[in-house]
Specification:
Distance between the termini of chain B: 30 Å
Shape of chain B: globular
Helix content of chain B: 10-25%
Number of helices of chain A: 5
Structural class of chain B: alpha+beta
Structural class of chain A: mainly alpha
Oligomer: heterodimer
Order of helices and strands of chain A: HHHHEEH
Radius of gyration of chain A: 22 Å
Largest interface: A-B, 17 and 19 residues
Number of strands of chain B: 7
Strand content of chain B: 25-35%
Order of helices and strands of chain B: EHHEEEEEEHH
Largest sheet of chain A: 2 strands, antiparallel
Radius of gyration of chain B: 15 Å
């Protein structure tokens, strides 16, 4: 999970993920188009994103197509947001039973 | 051929045999696939069906490839209202062992251009795949409901 946060802690890499979200399945060349980064820099960022499993690559013929892979982000959301929601619901349930108890006591 | 629209990858601390079984066993899919049960006699070209938690048939698909524990592929054609005009798209799971982990790659492609399938599945697969990983690694599936789309 460290590598996911490290990979996301860079504006250029987040920009690449946004571009893959907008248009899935781009080659390195397509991704470089219109960017002020060198091809070498984009390639390096992509390697870090792939290492963190935030980008999935599939080969089609001689081309390598890149996709935003949202699964690690989903796992992070499940780990914290999912738990938070459960805690909030438990809290609400506790509050309800507490208030109802007061009601019957009073 | 059109490019795949979705490629999802996850690494699961398990064996290919266990992951493959989880993909093809109806009791297992019920546990992590938010109550949906898969059913097939696993004959390539034969039917593959999904039933919702209420037991209704929601998918009448075709098994396209069955090569345990490496590859599983089936057509994807929901029967729900709103999808009548959609052609069958294709879902393919590829399992590779890398050390003590299984690299599970899921590709959803051959979607009808301009069809509703793209929107319909974009939120669902990461939830299903995360839940499968959780079940195999911790023994507990994620308890969230799959988002219902009308």
């Amino acid at each position: 999970m460290d590598d996911v946060f490290k990979a996301l802690a860079d504006a250029s890499r987040r920009l690449l993920l946004d571009r893959l979200f907008d248009r899935p399945g781009q080659t390195l060349g397509e991704l470089c188009r219109g960017l002020e980064m060198s091809r070498q820099a984009v390639s390096k960022h992509l390697a870090i994103l792939e290492e963190a499993n935030l980008v999935a690559a599939v080969k089609r013929g001689r081309e390598k197509l890149h996709y935003l892979n949202p699964v690690p982000i989903h796992e992070i959301a499940d780990r914290w947001i999912g738990k938070y929601q459960r805690a909030a619901l438990d809290g609400l349930a506790a509050l309800k039973s507490e208030l109802e108890k007061e009601e019957s006591d009073g | 051929m059109d490019k795949p629209k979705f490629v999802y990858v996850t690494y699961i601390r398990s064996t290919r045999e266990k992951v493959f079984r989880a993909l093809t066993d109806g009791d297992a899919t019920r546990a992590y696939w938010f109550g949906y049960r898969i059913e097939s006699d696993w004959t390539v070209g034969g039917p593959l069906r999904f039933y919702n938690p209420e037991g209704q048939l929601v998918h009448d698909d075709t098994l396209l490839a069955y090569d345990p524990p490496a590859t599983l592929s089936y057509g994807w054609k929901p029967l729900q209202k709103g999808f009548e005009g959609e052609t069958e798209s294709r879902v393919t799971f590829t399992l590779e062992q890398t050390g003590d982990q299984v690299k599970l790659t899921m590709v959803h492609d051959e979607m009808m251009p301009g069809g509703k399938m793209l929107d319909a599945v974009s939120g669902g697969w990461p939830a299903v795949i995360s839940s499968l990983k959780s079940l195999l690694e911790t023994g507990t599936a994620l308890d969230r409901q799959i988002p219902r789309r009308e």
